[in-house]
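TICKET: design request
STATUS: open
ATTACHED STRUCTURE:
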């Protein structure tokens, strides 16, 4: 059992019959009354983010998790298949366990969070950014360059994103996997 003082970013806890990861925390010691910790918790299984306040003396059930690098192999109608780079064992994850899976391409490395005791997969985290090739891009309209105008583009995984007007089909771009936004052109 962990206490309020053990709360830190990245800690996984058992909360409301689910496993949550601490995304943000703030220790507050008001001038009057007991201390408390304000937290932002993200469910590892569903990705839902909740705010919670733990009061002084609260007992928190810590969950031991390990993260390992896996290589994305392929997907089928139910989910995704990954291979452990160390022992070449394969593991399967449901489609709901991975956020923004449209930015994964075969051969890419992904961090998978596993529950330590049973080594059951809980979720997968994509790298913060990926490099993709633009397959199709709307034509840029001349004269729209005075503002930060964007146009639709399709990348190699089939996902649709917004890119600046100067991006053309065949170019490689860096994409933020959290929100699907364009970062920069890659040479």
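STATUS: resolved
RESOLUTION: sequence designed for all positions
ATTACHED SEQUENCE:
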């Amino acid at each position: 059992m962990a206490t309020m003082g053990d709360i830190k970013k990245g800690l996984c806890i058992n909360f409301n019959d689910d496993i949550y990861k601490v995304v943000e925390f703030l220790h507050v010691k008001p001038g009057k009354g007991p201390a408390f910790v304000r937290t932002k918790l993200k469910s590892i299984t569903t990705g839902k983010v909740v705010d919670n306040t733990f009061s002084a003396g609260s007992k928190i059930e810590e969950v031991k998790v390990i993260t390992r690098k896996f290589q994305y192999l392929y997907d089928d109608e139910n989910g995704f298949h990954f291979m452990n780079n160390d022992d070449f064992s394969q593991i399967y994850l449901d489609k709901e366990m991975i956020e923004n899976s449209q930015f994964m391409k075969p051969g890419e490395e992904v961090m998978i969070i596993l529950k330590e005791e049973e080594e059951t997969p809980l979720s997968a985290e994509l790298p913060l950014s990926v490099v993709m090739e633009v397959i199709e891009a709307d034509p840029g309209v001349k004269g729209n360059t005075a503002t930060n105008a964007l146009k639709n583009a399709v990348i190699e995984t089939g996902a649709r994103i917004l890119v600046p007007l100067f991006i053309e089909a065949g170019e490689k771009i860096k994409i933020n996997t959290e929100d699907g936004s364009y970062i920069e052109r890659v040479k």
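CLOSING REMARK: DSSP finds no helices and 16 strands in the chain. The mean pLDDT is 85.
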